[in-house]
Amino acid sequence: MNETISLLDVVALENNIPEQGLLRGQVGTVVEELASETFLIEFSDDQGKTGCASDYCGKNK
């Protein structure tokens, strides 16, 4: 398994983020690296409509 997060990677949430309406298991696409280990991830619905863009701080191993 590749644990390095890169631009355009598809990622899944490991935890709920209720304040943004995101649930564990939802998938999103990394669209920008904002800083070291901080990424902008875009989440879409089943029709491909963007529902949320969220920053994420995590380990970029």
Description:
The protein has a four-stranded antiparallel beta sheet, with no helix packed on it. With 61 residues, the protein is an all-beta fold. It has one domain (10-57). The mean pLDDT is 81. The chain is globular. It is built from no helices and four strands. 0% of the residues lie in helices and 44% in strands.
Task: Give the secondary structure arrangement, pairings included.
Elements: E1 10-12, E2 27-35, E3 38-44, E4 50-57
Antiparallel strand pairs: 1-2, 2-3, 3-4
Essential attributes:
61 residues
Question: What's the short version?
Answer:
By secondary structure, this protein is an all-beta fold.
Proportion in β-strands: 35-45%
Radius of gyration: 11 Å
* Number of β-strand runs: 4
Shape: globular
Fraction in helix: under 10%
